[in-house]
UniProtKB/TrEMBL annotation, chain A:
Keyword check for Transmembrane helix: yes
Domain ABC transmembrane type-1: 71-287
Pfam families, per the entry: BPD_transp_1
Keyword Nucleotide-binding attributed: no
Family: Belongs to the binding-protein-dependent transport system permease family.
One Gene Ontology cellular component annotation held by this UniProt entry: plasma membrane
Protein name: Carbohydrate ABC transporter membrane protein 1, CUT1 family
Cellular location(s): Cell membrane
Transmembrane segment boundaries: 12-31, 77-96, 108-128, 158-183, 217-238, 264-288
PROSITE patterns reported for this sequence: ABC_TM1 (PS50928)
Species the sequence originates in: Halanaerobium kushneri
Length: 295, 274
């Protein structure tokens, strides 16, 4: 085939257009998965020789209580995020889409947490949680609620919940904006009709707004569910997974194992497990949301 | 009367959230102007006794400005590559009928499901073997790869909406695919490219995990990692750390002041179209 024929061959042209994207995806997205799986059969510190272990890392993983509690924390975080972010974001979106003065001012400020990096949010909250100098305990002391002051991040009973709060704080604005966009797309006639039928605000919320937002809420929930498996930086900077693994997530646990303890074989095992969990969750929930949209 | 009351209730709720969102930021700024001892002496919500730029000078002297430069370099190069690579791929998926369009598209989207942290070890290893470890360029590959799925998604959707007639005449005239892409498609997808650029720029600006794993020397730190290390070293000096924290979030906030609508649209693009 000469050059001219080649340039007229649509398969060749398509391949040329796709080539750069395929190379980046292969090297940094696709190949890492089988590579991690391969590493998971070895004892390896990342630099030295690799020692074949067979399935030892995997049997260790299955009986590793910290791994299971980190996975449980990931799912707890999903639940907390759903229960906190969706209702608050929806509530704020409803308020801001009403005709009130200053709505755009509130919206502007409300979005700001989304602009901060996870590391910045984590450190900001760390200073708010500081037992002695933090904003939260200082405030509780001021209003006479000394008995409520505590070591928010140091107490392993509550550390996980304290560490979850900044995640909610940062992501509520994202869903607020999504809901605002969806609410403004609801035809005004529906509300007018409801009003004629004598519906009050609550009724028009439950019988007009909520049903019309159904697919948006489902999509936002899927984003939260899939996204919650990807948290790392905020918890890593806030608690490092501690105290005593109380706020450990799969991602922080795999980082500590691999890059602090330099146990990359076992770290790879956790990585593959995290990938599998994400895969299963994504397939289940993406299917779920697709079905819902079709209805 | 009832309407007035309703309005009041709405404003009370909005003000509560305003406090929850806004006060931590005020706390950040007001304490960044305090000197270390004053922070321990007075309540955290007190205004500084005397405004001082001392913390700001000290943070900058510590080499913090290098992290800004590094972040800017890495983010801008990555975003430029992402735009080119994802636009090329999206054009092929949307416009060249090579039979596997649908499958290729779905495979790209499937990339969104991969949790980036599950790839850290292999990427660390790959980076080492490429000789890129502890270089800023080590970050570009992973940044591009992980931004591709959403970028291809946004751009393909946009190109699909462009009427085909615009290209037809050019094809009849015998123009090559590359010329059509460059002269017809690219100018038309500019708005989508802006969205892709903002979406990825904000996301990558705040990225942390890759830099943590792929770089080590202070001169190669990006802003998030620089802040992390700064906190590790100076964490006891709370006002100083708060100053570094405030400086690290300032660039995006300034951008937001000028381009608010674009930023909101860009940052929510992935979610809104998904």
């Amino acid at each position: 085939m000469n050059k001219k024929e080649l340039m007229n061959n649509k398969y060749f042209i398509a391949a040329l257009f796709l080539l750069p994207a395929v190379i980046f995806s292969l090297v940094y997205l696709i190949i890492p998965i089988p590579l991690s799986t391969y590493y998971s059969f070895f004892k390896w510190d990342g630099i030295g020789a690799m020692e074949f272990l067979g399935l030892d890392n995997w049997s260790k993983l299955l009986s590793d209580p910290i791994f299971w509690s980190s996975m449980a924390n990931n799912f707890k975080l999903v639940l907390i995020s759903l229960v906190v972010q969706i209702p608050i974001a929806l509530f704020l979106a409803v308020l801001l889409t009403r005709k009130i003065k200053g709505a755009s001012f509130f919206k502007t400020i409300f979005f700001v947490p989304m602009l901060l990096s996870s590391i910045a949010v984590a450190f900001l909250w760390r200073y708010m949680y500081d037992p002695t100098f933090g904003l939260i305990n200082s405030f509780l002391n001021l209003v006479g609620l000394e008995q409520l002051t505590r070591s928010w991040l140091g107490n392993s009973d509550i550390a996980f919940y304290s560490a979850s709060a900044p995640i909610q704080w940062r992501f509520i604005p994202l869903y607020m904006i999504i809901f605002m966009a969806a609410i403004s797309n609801i035809p005004k006639q529906l509300y007018e009709a409801a009003e004629i039928d004598g519906a009050n605000n609550w009724q028009s919320f439950f019988y007009v707004t909520l049903p019309m937002l159904r697919s948006t809420v489902v999509n936002a929930s899927v984003l939260i569910i899939v996204g919650s498996l990807k948290y790392f930086a905020m918890i890593f900077a806030l608690t490092g997974g501690g105290p005593n693994h109380a706020s450990e997530l799969m991602a922080t646990y795999l980082y500590t194992k691999s890059f602090t303890e330099m146990n990359m074989g076992y770290g790879s095992t956790i990585s593959v497990a995290l990938f599998l969990v994400a895969l299963i969750v994504s397939v289940v929930f993406l299917n779920f949301s697709k079905k819902d949209v079709r209805n | 009367m009832i309407n007035k009351l309703k309005q009041l209730v709405i404003y009370i709720f909005l003000s509560v959230w305003l406090l929850i969102t806004g006060y931590p930021l005020v706390f950040l700024v007001q304490n960044s102007f305090k000197i270390r001892m004053e922070f321990f002496r007075n309540p955290v919500w007190s205004l500084p006794e005397k405004f001082t730029w001392q913390n700001y000078i000290e943070v900058m002297k510590s080499g913090f400005y290098i992290y800004f430069i590094n972040s800017i370099i890495v983010c801008f190069i990555s975003v430029a590559i992402i735009i080119i690579v994802s636009a090329l791929a999206s054009y092929a998926i949307s416009r060249i009928d090579f039979k596997f369009n649908k499958i290729v598209y779905i495979l790209f989207l499937a990339g969104m499901m991969i949790p980036i942290h599950s790839t850290l070890i292999p990427i660390y290893k790959i980076t080492l073997s490429m000789g890129l470890y502890d270089k800023l360029s080590a970050l570009i590959g992973p940044y591009v790869a992980f931004s591709l799925p959403i970028s291809v998604f946004i751009l393909t959707g946009f190109i699909n909406d462009i009427p085909y007639e615009l290209e037809e005449a050019a094809i009849i005239d015998g123009a090559s695919r590359f010329r059509i892409f460059r002269d017809i498609i690219l100018p038309l997808v500019k708005p989508a490219i802006a969205t892709v650029a903002i979406y990825n720029l904000t996301l990558l600006w705040n990225q942390f995990a890759y830099a943590l794993v792929l770089t080590s020397s202070p001169s190669k730190r990006i802003l998030t990692l620089g802040l992390f290390e700064f906190q590790g070293q100076h964490g006891i000096n709370i006002p100083l750390t708060l100053t570094a924290l405030f400086l690290s979030v300032l660039p995006l906030i300034l951008l937001y002041v000028f381009l608010q609508e674009h930023i909101i649209k860009g940052m929510t693009a992935g979610a809104l179209k998904g």
